[in-house]
Specification:
Mean pLDDT: 81
Helix content: 10-25%
Oligomer: single chain
Number of strands: 15
Order of helices and strands: HEEEEEEHEEEEEHEEEEH
Largest sheet: 6 strands, antiparallel
Strand order of the largest sheet: 10-11-15-14-13-12
Low-confidence stretches: none
């Protein structure tokens, strides 16, 4: 713990001596705001121009070290609110082994997890990207994310890709522009043939299912695929009919893992 707080003091000193204009970046260094914690308030740019101040808290408990940081408006009441939120987050932090999976709600990080439901709805996302070994011009990306419960029409894939609503690639021809359900997921699909500036031809494939978005078990899903990817762009290594068949096979493989959780909608 002594080594941690010595490094905190060194960071505070570095901020104190770093100037933007004629002012230090350090506003406050509090070495004992709560038991086994230290806090720094600082600016990331010129203090006179900054809209927010950053609260950085360092904690130590039961061999567990954590550094939590969040921006705040510069009003003292808002700063206190952010400090209390960081303290509450740390109090919910529990150690865990590498392979331990908590049985209750929470959010896992390396060697620990935040126990319980967060005070604010979290935003979580994960993505995987794939490049085909035998067809290096073909790239895929699959993403899943929690999203806000409210979404307007302008968030939908079909609305965004409508030629009447820029931006839209002028040298493209839509092969598919439709709603498409995959398993329980109600989505939208846009597939286009694209002619690049160097006159090569490739394809873009997009499918999105927004989902209710109220939890990690009912996420927004996105699958994307391109052919002809390169620098510069190249012609698609697959004929159009084969590229479409590959896309359909990958897209139709998306499914919910295991039974739908109790209370979930049949169509997500």
């Amino acid at each position: 713990m002594e080594d941690l707080f010595a490094s905190v003091a060194a960071e505070a000193h570095k901020l104190e001596t770093a100037e933007k204009g004629d002012k230090s970046l350090l506003k406050l260094y509090n070495p004992g705001r709560m038991t086994e914690s230290q806090t720094i308030h600082y600016w990331k740019g010129p203090p006179d121009e900054a809209e927010v101040i950053w609260i950085k808290s360092f904690y130590w408990k039961e061999g567990l070290c954590a550094i939590l940081e969040a921006p705040s408006e510069q009003d003292p009441a808002e700063i206190e609110k952010v400090e209390k939120s960081l303290d509450a987050s740390f109090e919910s932090l529990k150690p865990r082994t590498f392979s331990e999976i908590p049985t209750g709600p929470g959010f896992c990080i390396e060697s620990a997890y935040f126990q319980g439901e967060p005070p604010e709805r979290p935003w979580e996302n994960a993505s995987i990207m794939v490049q085909l070994k035998d067809h290096p011009d073909i790239h895929l990306k699959f993403s899943t994310a929690t999203v806000d419960a409210y979404r307007g029409e302008s968030d939908s894939l079909l609305f965004r890709m409508n030629p009447e609503h820029p931006p839209h690639i002028p040298e493209s021809h839509d092969l598919r522009f439709r709603k498409r359900q995959v398993g329980p997921y109600r989505g939208e699909e846009v597939v286009s043939r694209v002619t690049e500036l160097n006159q090569t031809t490739g394809h873009t494939f997009q499918w999105e299912a927004m989902g209710p978005g109220e939890s990690a078990t009912e996420p927004a899903l996105t699958l994307q695929m391109v052919t002809g990817y390169g620098d510069p762009a190249v012609d698609s290594s697959l004929p159009e009919v084969d590229a479409l068949a590959l896309w359909d096979r990958i897209l139709d493989s998306i499914r919910y893992r295991g039974p739908l959780p109790p209370g979930s909608r049949k169509d997500l």
